[in-house]
Design goal:
single chain, mainly alpha, 3 domains, 69% helix, globular, disordered N terminus
Length: 395
């Protein structure tokens, strides 16, 4: 019965009425439906095999990374959000391949017994193809997912738009922008800017083995098991790093604000603030609960909070700039020049400029602006578009 059901699912997928990935994940998560998982493996086999084979010279190593990727899918199926399973699997496959490649670099003897590294005639350069897969996995999802869907899985713009739940024009624009970003990153890594995302077809035997393995039908090889646990651990670690990074960032910002504030002239003593009113008494039993805010009221609250945030952000930025300007003025007054202080200030400002350049690049990529030097013009256009959206009556 499971094999018959698998053939039925495959036949359905070959037609126009595809069973959604979300439904297959639900069937496997809730019912442990092996046929549903097998269809997921077959549907995304080439998407996973391509980075594994491009990043690992040994086909045996590529098989290990391939199996580990689908074992991770079996373990994490219930935690996947969204509908782009192919995009999720591609990133996991790149992680698995890179981790296995790093392990092999530390222990070359581990792969000496299966060095099937002779390239297939006419196949792309494995080093260049591996770099392309590695850089693709590092793109933001808004650019990465259209590339995975259209260039690796062969979806049409309309199919990708349905999967990503956005207009066809948005998919086309993001796909074009993603290719530009990839070319720029390849150039920085010394690779010729010729971007060809070729797809490697997964061997049928490898696909069958992964389906049986993930369904618990065979024993897991120790290398695959170790690789699976290592990638799962790495997938959990960034969450802790993100929390620690945000905390450290807030502490640094707080310290910078305190330093900037302490270097400014002392402000006059503020007037005593009004006493804080006592909290309102809870409603008496039987009284109606406070009315929930409408969407319009929440929008107004969000706009008010943003206005307050913008005011404070600009104020602190202006204070920091004023502090730098005052230092330059104090060290460069005619007749009282302080060359050592000026040289120190120049070095400090150069460091600040270098620290800000990655942020400029980040926001340029986020808004789809290239090169980053055009960020001011792009911001101006985006602000004009936002103004029209927020106030349709504005010219």
């Amino acid at each position: 019965m499971p094999h018959r059901f698998a053939r039925l699912l495959a036949a359905t997928a070959e037609g126009g009425d595809r069973i959604p990935n979300a439904e297959l994940l639900r069937q496997f998560t809730q019912d442990r439906n092996a046929a549903a998982f097998e269809l997921l493996v077959r549907r995304h086999a080439d998407t996973v095999w391509t980075p594994c084979r491009r990043l690992l010279r040994s086909e045996a190593d590529a098989e290990d990374a391939f199996q580990a990727t689908f074992l991770i899918l079996a373990r994490k199926a219930g935690a996947i959000r969204g509908t782009c399973v192919g995009g999720w699997l591609h990133r996991v496959a790149v992680r698995a391949a890179l981790k296995l490649r790093a392990r092999n670099a530390r222990d070359p003897a581990a792969t000496s017994e299966h060095l099937s590294t002779v390239p297939t005639p006419g196949a792309p350069d494995p080093d260049i193809s591996g770099i392309v897969q590695e850089e693709l996995a590092q793109l933001p999802d808004r650019y990465r997912l259209p590339v995975v869907l259209c260039d690796l899985e062969g979806r049409t713009y309309a199919e990708a738009a349905a999967t990503l739940r956005c207009p066809v024009g948005t998919v086309a624009g993001r796909l074009s922008r993603a290719r530009v970003i990839l070319r720029d990153r390849l150039v920085r890594r010394g690779v010729a800017p010729i971007l060809v995302l070729s797809v490697s077809a997964a061997p049928a035997g490898v696909v069958r083995a992964a389906s049986v393995l993930a369904a618990g039908g065979s024993a897991v090889h120790p290398v695959v098991s170790s690789l699976t646990e290592g990638v799962l651990h790495a997938m959990r670690t960034p969450k802790w790093k993100m929390v620690a990074g945000l905390t450290a960032g807030l502490l640094v910002l707080a310290g910078a604000a305190i330093t900037a504030y302490g270097s400014l002239p002392k402000a006059p003593t503020p007037m005593p603030s009004a006493p804080i009113p006592a909290p309102a008494a809870p409603p008496e039993k039987g009284e109606p609960a406070p009315k929930a805010k409408t969407t319009e009221e929440l929008v107004q609250d969000a706009k008010a909070r943003f206005a307050e945030f913008e005011r404070l952000k600009l104020l602190l930025t202006e204070a920091e700039l004023l502090n730098d300007r005052r230092d330059i003025y104090a060290a460069g007054r005619p007749g009282k020049e302080d060359a050592a202080a000026l040289a120190k200030k120049v070095t400090e400002l150069e460091r600040k400029i270098e620290d800000l350049k990655p942020r400029q690049k980040f926001y340029a990529d986020l808004f789809g602006i290239s090169p980053p030097s055009k960020l001011p013009e792009g911001i101006k256009k985006i602000k004009e578009e936002m103004k029209k959206l927020e106030d349709p009556k504005s010219p």
